[in-house]
Amino acid sequence: MKYDIYTEVTSRIISQLEQGVIPWKSPYFSKIGFPRNFSTGRPYHGINVFLLGSLRYTSPFFLTFIQAKELGGNVRKGERGSLVVKYGTYTKQTEGTASAGESEEHRKFLRAYTVFHASQVEGITFPEPENVPELPANAACDRARAIVAAMPKAPAMHEGSAVPCYRRSTDSVHMPERRFFTSEEVFFSTLFHELTHASGHESRLARPSLLENKGIDAEGEARKTYAEEELVAEMGASFLCAHAGIIEAELENSAAYLQGWIDALKSNDAKGWIIRAASQAQKAADFILNIQPEA
Q: Does some domain include residue 127?
C-alpha cells in the first residue's frame, strides 16, 4: 500500500486527541518556545509545530539523522524519530510547448521526514533548555494587548456582545465585556480566535475557508468549510497565545470538544485539511504579528 502522508499526519493527530491531548493547545509552546531545527536554527512551522510540540520534550531542538552525523554526533541505537513534513511547490518542465514560459508547470509537493530530539542524540552538546520564564498574568496580558493593538489592517472591535464572534459583513469583531470571562487570559485567547477569523477577510489574506464559510448551520460540503475555518482559528489563537506568554489550560477542554474534532478528522473527506488548516493558521498568526514570510 502506498504511503500517504496526509493520512499518517491525520492519524497521529487523532491518536493524540483520543488520549486527551490537544496538539494545538500544548503549554510547552509558551514554556520552552517553538520547536526548531538545531542545525539550521530555523523554527518549524504549521503542522510541524503541533506534531513536535505535543511530544512534551523539555528542549526545543531537533535534528535529522544526517544532520546529527554532520555535526559529529549520532542518534542513539533503538531511538524512534518523529514525523515532520515539508510542503512546497516546484516547477516541472513539459515538452511540446511553443515557448519557454509555456513549458513550465507549477506543482505542489508534500514530503515526510524523520527528526530526532536532542535527548535522543549523543556526541553533540546542546544548549541547556532555555525555559521561557512564566510571565505573571498581567505581563502576559500586556503582551497580548500589544499584539492586538499592533495588528495590521485591524478590523473594528466592539465589547458588549452576547457571544464572541467575527462578522465578515461588517468586518468587525464583537466580544462580551471582560467581566464575563473567568480571567483576562481567557478573554485574550478568545479574542485571538476571532482575530484569526478576521485575518481571512478579502482585504487581508483572502482565506477560502472564511470567504466560503456559511456558518455553524451549514450542511454538506459547506459544513466541512466551516469546520476547517474553526480549526484555523483554534490553531491561530494558540500560536498567538504562545507569543504572548499565555499558557492555555488543556484541562478546560470538555470531552465533547475533543470528540467533535475526532469525529471531524475521521470523516472520509477530511484527509489533508489538518495540514492545510495548520498552514493557514501559521499565515494568520504571522499576519497579525506582522511577521514577514521567509523567502
A: no
109 — phi, psi (to 5°)? -140, 155
Given a cut of 90, whether residue 115 has pLDDT beyond it is: yes
Q: What is the DSSP string of 9-60?
A: HHHHHHHHHHTT--GGG-THHHHH-S-EETTT-PBP-THHHHHHHTT--SS-
* Residue pair 119/130 in contact by the 8 Å Cβ criterion: no
Q: How far apart are CA 211 and CA 87, in angstroms?
A: 23
Residue 58 lies in a domain: yes
* Grid cell in block for residue 46: 504549521
Q: Is residue 293 part of a domain?
A: no
Phi and psi angles of residue 13, each rounded to the nearest 5 degrees, phi first? -65, -45
**pTM of the model as a whole:** 0.86
- Cell matching residue 202: 478579502
The average pLDDT across 225-236 equals 92
What sign for the dihedral angle of Cα 245, 249, 254, 259? positive
| 80 and 215 part of one domain | no
| Domain interval for residue 244 | 137-288
Look at residue 143 and tell me if it is in a domain: yes
pLDDT at residue 72 is higher than 90: yes
- 137 or 168, which is more confident: 168
* CA–CA distance, 295 with 283 (Å, rounded to integer): 14
Q: Helices (H) and strands (E) in the chain — how many of each?
A: 10, 9
Under 8 Å between Cβ of 34 and 49: yes
- Of 71-80, 94-103, 126-135, the poorest mean pLDDT is in 94-103
In this structure, the answer to whether residues 29 and 82 fall within a common structural domain is: yes
- Nearest of 19, 18, 34 to residue 278 by alpha carbon: 34
Q: What Cα–Cα distance (Å) separates residue 292 from each residue in 12, 151, 204, 243, 282?
A: 30, 13, 14, 15, 11
Q: What value does the mean pLDDT take over residues 207-217? A: 88
